[in-house]
Write a structure and sequence with these properties.
disordered C terminus, elongated, four-stranded parallel sheet
């Protein structure tokens, strides 16, 4: 009888833990400080609530070791786990822990290698392909120079560009900048990069950067601003607004407007494009990212999974395409989606 009771209690506790795990999603951020990650968090919180999950969030504040320690301390048998990947230093250790605990895990972020364990069939990578973001950003820049071939305002025979880059150590930073430069040069544009400063994806740092460029070179010698993300692009807009450039509807009037391009499609950036201040951004579909993650957690058989998620599935890697959004050539409040 005692043996029977012990077995019964064990089974009850095991089932209770399993049910609990399936009702909770643990989200381990490398850092929550960027607008991109804030949008991911907000979208995930909203969709988790709609689907009846509790969302538990951990923020490593930009420290890879802290993220690993948070994961090690809080991972449990049968968990549903999401990890934002920025620094891969401890990724293999976290993958080993995930397999040991039979965790269903989804990685996302700007990792240069969708580094999931080929031997662990419960590990997935879902993200936005960094080359695609740059290509979509270039598509808008190309449209702009085709629509406004007199972009050489100072008559020096070149397109004078301020590049606002993210973190120096980030692979995505270099990819996004390189794609724009190589594409413009291949298209035949005589490009003159004024600066390549690493503004850390920061609104305030980009704001100070552009103020310095204006003091150094003069606003008349800055003909385009290309930022690796929307936060920096909006920081540039603030600096321009202070000298009465890129004011609301200036793009449509053509008065005191310098083209500024961002990446991510944050709500603030979209509003700025609509207002004719920011020239264009590329939209990362946060709802699609979150929806695909949920589908992975709620599916046990992944045959023909591509038909379920609507996006290309390569092994256990899913990339969600960006969409370009601007008002170039389109003055009836429509977006350019490519």
């Amino acid at each position: 009888m005692k043996i029977f009771l012990k077995v019964f209690v064990f089974l009850f506790l095991f089932c209770s833990c399993s049910v609990y795990a399936k009702e909770e999603i643990k989200l381990f951020f490398f850092s929550m400080e960027t607008d991109f990650m804030s949008h991911v968090h907000n979208t995930m919180a909203k969709m988790s609530k709609q689907r009846g999950y509790r969302l538990k969030v951990y923020d490593a504040k930009g420290e890879a070791k802290r993220q690993y320690e948070q994961f090690k301390k809080n991972v449990s048998i049968g968990d549903f786990v999401i990890i934002s990947v920025k620094d891969e230093k401890y990724l293999s250790e976290m993958m080993d822990l995930a397999e040991e605990h039979d965790v269903k895990i989804v990685l996302f972020g700007t990792s240069p290698t969708a580094n999931i364990s080929p031997s662990y069939d419960k590990a997935w990578y879902v993200g936005f392909e960094m080359f695609d973001s740059a290509r979509k950003q270039y598509s808008m820049i190309k449209k702009y120079i085709n629509e406004y071939p007199d972009y050489d305002k100072n008559g020096n025979g070149s397109l004078d560009v301020v590049f606002m880059q993210g973190r120096e150590q980030d692979f995505a930073t270099h990819v996004r900048t390189r794609v724009i430069i190589e594409s413009l040069e291949k298209y035949g544009v005589n490009l003159n990069p004024i600066s390549y400063n690493f503004d850390e994806y920061s609104y305030s740092t980009a704001y100070e950067d552009l103020k310095n460029q204006i003091r150094t070179y003069g606003i008349e010698n800055i003909e385009m601003i290309v930022a690796n993300n929307d936060s920096m692009a909006l920081g540039a807009i603030k600096a321009l607004n202070e000298i009465k450039y890129n004011m609301p509807y200036s793009f449509f009037s053509g008065h005191n407007h310098i083209p500024v391009f961002g990446i991510d499609g944050t709500s603030e950036a979209l509003k700025s494009v609509e207002a004719g201040m920011l020239t264009g951004t590329t939209i990362a579909d946060y709802s699609a990212l979150t929806r695909v993650m949920m589908m992975i957690f709620e599916t046990n058989v992944y045959d023909d999974f591509q038909k379920v998620v609507w996006y290309k599935v390569d092994g256990r890697t899913i990339f969600i395409p960006y969409r370009a959004f601007s008002k170039i050539k389109v003055y009836n409040a429509q977006s350019l989606n490519e």
